[in-house]
Amino acid sequence: MRIVIVGGVAGGMSCAARARRLDESAEIVVLERGAHVSFANCGLPYYVGGEIEDQDALLVQTPERLRTALNLDVRTGHDVIGLHAETREVVVRSTAGEERIPYDALVLSPGAAAARPPIPGLQSPRVRTLRSVEDAVALRERADAGVRRAVVFGAGFIGVEAAEVLALRGIRTMLVEWAPHVLPPLDEEQAWPVTEELRRLGIDVRVGVAAERVVQGEDADEIVLSDGTTASADLIVLAVGVRPDTAVFEASGVACEHGAIVTDEHGRTSLPAVWAVGDATRSTDPITGLRRPVALAGPANRAGRLVADHILRPETARPIPQPLGTAIVRVGTVTAAMTGANRAALERVGIAFRTLHLHPNQHAGYFPGAVPVHLTLHIREDDGLILGAQATGGDGIDKRIDVLATAIRNQMTAPDLIDLDLAYAPPYGQAKDAVNLAGMLSANVLDGTLQLWDARDLDSVRAESLILDVRTMAEVATGAIPGALGIPHTELRDRLDEVRSAAAGRPVRLLCASGVRSAIAHRVLAQSGFDSASLSGGMMTLRAVLGDHAGEVLAVSEDRQAAEGRAA
Ligand SMILES: Cc1cc2nc3c(=O)[nH]c(=O)nc-3n(C[C@H](O)[C@H](O)[C@H](O)COP(=O)(O)OP(=O)(O)OC[C@H]3O[C@@H](n4cnc5c(N)ncnc54)[C@H](O)[C@@H]3O)c2cc1C
Questions:
Q1: What are 47-76's pLDDT values in tens digits?
Q2: What is the DSSP letter of 240?
Q3: 32 CA from centroid of ligand 1 (Å)
Q4: Cβ distance 373 to 434 under 8 Å?
Q5: Does the pLDDT value for residue 7 go beyond 60?
Q6: Percentage of the chain modeled with pLDDT above 90
């Protein structure tokens, strides 16, 4: 059997390697347009930044090593320009000319190319993308050559990584994103710590604005933004998303949807003996049922392996699982990660859900270095099925999101998280891990032990309720909701009459720093007959939701302002 694979990186090479392990007799030909196979796309930003010093470290494999180790016929510089399903052949162009290569099984893993929106001026030589080893080498050379000002278009995962490494190289960097916040797949409150960290790194973050045009100049290009402002740059990085690199296959009759190859659960396309995997395909979101691309390395690698199984062992091959879109990114000292559905996707399909926020420490509070895990959990309204999770913070974000991704894959409810027996010692976690605590919080919410209110409802809550702030007076002085009544939670039991009189029949809406003390206060009030609810995630979540507007909304006490003025 001859298996021909188009694309020699994540999905394609996983398929080739697995096929060889299953069948010593198969002829396996990998056709790769570029100069490299099996290169580390995901490592490219770190090469630009210099954290990965040596370019060779990006080349995980070479055609020679693949020939020796796996007897693969890997042909770089071979561009597949046609597909004839009737004769089962692909047309390939290389320096040797054009040839037709027959196949018994064809696997398409051509990936995606950087999207190029119709922004006038993008043909400027100062505009670069970050997709290939050559792109990364060119960017690093530009940075080495003394670029002073860079503008990155797009604050998705690659744009944020690119902005960070440029800023760390001392380049004055602006990051432009048309969505209302950076890392648009995250919910706004989870994106905020990333914005703050980007700013701490010196990056000028502009959200809610689009790049309208690039005007080529002698010494630098000028970028005109949709808010009327301009920026000047020696280097522009275009990172506004990707589009499946499938034109040649669509033109050859492979069924596509929005340019992405349509596949079934085994990766089969509309043509016989043709499979497809990776960024070139679309998949179904297992939570929302929405069809969308998932341009991530894990799903591409795993699908490549499963397609090899289906070609060579169809009776036992497992279907390709629907990816949850579990993703993670490091920005300075902050890690942000997500799995499953976000708020926008759930609202789009009309799934009734509740959102929980919590900020437990990543390890025991008494052990040095404890920092919060800012955790958001979306759970199904009626039964608490976990629909999605996001987390930002320092250490331990990867661990929590991976546990939650596993829980979602196994269709666990949030209260099931209480029972997870997770590893604990003070440097690593807490006896009640952040994930267990999320389960406990959800159980309380689902059975009515705890009522929550959401920071995004602040305006209506202020209009209709008494806001009761149960933090200490020192905490209140750092920023409080104007008009809120302040009673530390330790004094609440003795001051219920004060609350009753201030509420004057209105509901009482509680808040504290993270939602823990206000939950205790809620139990006190609820058992005393108040209509009470606790702010989900407390002031930490409220500040993240308010973002740049926190200063306008929250009142800082005059004493504190004076103290800060003196310190300054
Ligand atoms: C800078 C960067 C950082 C990333 N970081 C992460 C990360 O941290 N985590 C993560 O999960 N994912 C990350 N990704 C995404 C991840 O790399 C992709 O999802 C994954 O590589 C997709 O695998 P694939 O096989 O579909 O395509 P690719 O790995 O892109 O491989 C496709 C190959 O096919 C070749 N090709 C295309 N058309 C043809 C043709 N007609 N003939 C011959 N060859 C062809 C291309 O030259 C390319 O080499 C990152 C991507 C980039 C660019």
A1: 999 999 999 999 989 999 999 999 999 999
A2: S
A3: 12
A4: yes
A5: yes
A6: 96
Is residue 171 within 8 Å of residue 149, measured between CB atoms? yes
Rounded to the nearest angstrom, the distance between the alpha carbon of 108 and the centre of ligand 1 is: 12
Q: What is residue 182's three-state secondary structure?
A: coil
| Strand pairing report for 221-225 and 230-233 | antiparallel
For the stretch 352-372, pLDDT in tens is 999 999 999 999 999 999 999
Whether the model pTM is above 0.90? yes
CA–CA distance, 497 with 516 (Å, rounded to integer): 23
> Running DSSP on this structure, what letter comes out for residue 123?
T
Nearest 5 degrees, angle CA 120-CA 125-CA 131?
90
Question: How many CA within 13 A on the CB side of residue 123?
Answer: 1
**By alpha-carbon position, which residue is closest to atom 41 of ligand 1?**
80
Closest ligand 1 atom to Cα of 280: 26
Long-range contacts of 371-376 (CB under 8 A, 24+ apart): 371/395, 372/514, 372/540, 373/397, 373/400, 373/434, 374/189, 374/190, 374/193, 374/537, 374/540, 374/541, 374/544, 375/400, 375/434, 375/438, 376/187, 376/189, 376/190, 376/537
Ligand 1 pocket at CB < 6 A: 6-7, 9-12, 31-34, 41-42, 44-45, 79-80, 109-111, 130-131, 158, 245, 248, 278-280, 295-298, 300
Other CB atoms within 10 A of residue 303 CB: 29
Q: Which atom of ligand 1 is nearest to the CA of 34?
A: 47
DSSP string for residues in 265-294: TT-B-SSTTEEE-GGGB-EE-TTT--EE--
Chain-centroid distance of CA 267 in Å reads 25
Closest C-alpha among 399, 393, 392, 390 to residue 428 = 399
Amino acid type, 103:
Y
Q: In a mutational test of the pocket of ligand 1, which residue from 13, 41, 132, 157 has the highest number of ligand atoms less than 8 Å from its CB?
A: 41
Residue to probe by mutation, ligand 1, list 9, 48, 94, 131, most atoms within 8 Å of CB: 9
Give residue-wise pLDDT tens across range 506-552: 999 999 999 999 999 999 999 999 999 999 999 999 999 999 999 99
Between 552 and 560, the more confident residue is 552
Q: Phi, psi at residue 327, to the nearest 5°?
A: -145, 155
DSSP H or E stretch at residue 431: none
Give the E-state strand segments of 162-298 in sequence order: 172-177, 204-207, 211-215, 221-225, 230-233, 235-238, 242-244, 256-257, 260-261, 274-276, 283-284, 291-292
Taking the C-alpha atoms of residue 53 and residue 45, their distance in angstroms, rounded to an integer, is: 11
**Is pLDDT at 92 greater than 70 in this prediction?**
yes
Nearest CA owner, ligand 1 atom 7: 42
The ligand 1 atom at the shortest distance from the C-alpha of residue 279 is 26
